[in-house]
Specification:
6-stranded antiparallel β-sheet; alpha/beta; NADPH-cytochrome p450 Reductase, Chain A, domain 3; 5-stranded parallel β-sheet; 38% helix; Rossmann fold; binds flavin-adenine dinucleotide
Length: 399
């Protein structure tokens, strides 16, 4: 796998310009007015033989006044990679020095716009339709007119693929603000508790890399943070509060946490919160990933919490360590009698991580546990789950 070339100087210059703009006269921090946090640590959590690259990021809140609670996420405003910007400029026969204005009418040059304002990564339907119109390319117009063809075309493609497929020039580079969507911030579950680490935020970020249509692809924000922002670098952040993923108000309530992969992040925050003395919640964590030797994120933390009694139970599932695939839902099924006992005693059930496969599979295992051990069957299990949702003790933060 090849890695994106890092134009260190250019990235640093772009970051310091971003920082200067952010710091100027700002007092409150938000999505539109992010705080420029210093990276205190950026280290690999996964082993060198892992198929994944997940990184532990520590940010300094210094005297920003930013506050957060376990369950909250941090929003990060990324920059597009310099390489990606260069290629787009080259294909459009532009230099990057062309003057444009941002979405608020503020003047900047095109290179800055493509770095920090416009989404040149994952291709959107709106962009394809606008480019089809701009180029008059009949093949693209056909794709744009058919939802199925459009979805198939968009999969795994970026703006660069589109302009290579249907090359055209732009009379006015400002048109790009109509063609491309705005580069959106990305959210990351906070994996620390401010009760323990007063001026820090920890994040656990999986760097997105894959191949499609014959090219290496890199997630915009996860590579910006993970691979282009080392210790000492700056990241524009804001706090995204999530009232629907809080620890139980009653500090004696049982807590079951299911967090495979980076889904474990908020549960590390919950455990730090308990460690800081904020509650005595009995806690049970299900963690899973591919291989114990490579992918057991925060192994030392979790084992230390088991040893000192902060974490009452830890069940792990490593899918590739044996012939048959073992996932967190497998462990839920194996321990369903005990799980039912916890649920029956009022436990909150939290799920974080993959929304497509893991979360529905975990829900199915949960329903099975209730149906079997209540002795009342699947209809009762559905009612039980509906009641848990009503009581806000079945909580999911999935993505
Ligand atoms: C509430 C919330 C909390 C989150 N917490 C975390 C967290 O703690 N840690 C974490 O790592 N992430 C977390 N995420 C996900 C995170 O916000 C980003 O979505 C993720 O990092 C990808 O962003 P990116 O900019 O790097 O990738 P992008 O540039 O946005 O690219 C991602 C896109 O690439 C495409 N893609 C990815 N893989 C493939 C593939 N194999 N084949 C084809 N296409 C593919 C998909 O369309 C995907 O949407 C969270 C999301 C939410 C909403």
């Amino acid at each position: 796998m090849s890695y994106p070339r890092v134009h260190k100087g250019a990235t640093e210059r772009m970051q310091s310009e971003q920082t200067a703009t952010l710091e100027a006269g700002r007092t409150t921090w938000s999505r539109n007015n992010p705080y420029s946090a210093t990276v205190l640590e950026n280290r690999l959590l996964t082993g060198s033989d892992s198929e994944k690259e997940t990184r532990h990021i520590e940010l300094d809140l210094a005297d920003s006044g930013l506050t957060y609670l376990p369950g909250d996420s941090a929003g990060i405003l990324p920059l597009n990679a310099c390489d990606a910007v260069d290629l787009v400029l080259e294909r459009l026969h532009l230099t990057g020095q062309e003057p444009v204005t941002d979405f608020y009418g503020k003047p900047l040059d095109l290179r800055q716009a493509l770095s920090s304002w416009l989404m040149i990564g994952k291709l959107s339907g709106t962009t394809l339709k606008a480019w089809a119109k701009h180029t008059g390319n009949p093949e693209l117009s056909g794709v744009a007119a058919n939802k199925e063809k459009l979805d198939a075309y968009l999969w795994g493609r970026e703006f660069l693929d589109l302009i290579e497929h249907a090359p055209a020039t732009l009379d006015d580079p400002q048109q790009l603000f109509k063609i491309l969507p705005r580069l959106a911030p990305r959210l990351y579950s906070i994996s620390s508790s401010q009760a323990l680490l007063h001026t820090h935020i920890d994040l656990s970020i999986r760097v997105v890399k894959y191949q499609s249509h014959g090219r290496d692809r890199f997630g915009v924000c996860s590579t910006h943070v993970g691979e282009r922002t080392p210790k000492g670098g700056k990241l524009p952040i804001f706090i995204h509060s999530n009232q629907l993923f809080r620890l139980p108000a009653d500090p004696a309530t049982r807590v079951i946490m299911v967090g495979p992969g980076t889904g474990v992040a908020p549960f590390r925050a919950y455990l730090q919160h308990k460690q800081a003395g904020c509650g005595r919640w009995p806690m049970w964590l299900f963690f899973g990933d591919q291989r114990a030797s490579q992918d057991f994120l925060y192994k030392e933390d979790f084992e230390a919490w088991v040893a000192d009694g902060t974490l009452n139970r830890l069940d792990t599932a490593f899918s590739r360590d044996q012939k048959e695939k073992i996932y967190v839902q497998t462990r839920i099924r194996e321990n369903s009698a005990e799980l039912w006992r916890w649920l029956n005693e009022g436990a909150y059930f939290y799920v974080c991580g993959d929304s497509k496969r893991m979360a529905p599979d975990v829900e199915a295992a949960l329903l099975e546990a209730v149906a079997t051990h209540s002795g009342k069957g699947p209809d009762y299990a559905n009612e039980f789950l509906a009641e848990m949702k009503k009581q806000k003790r079945y909580l999911r933060d999935v993505y």
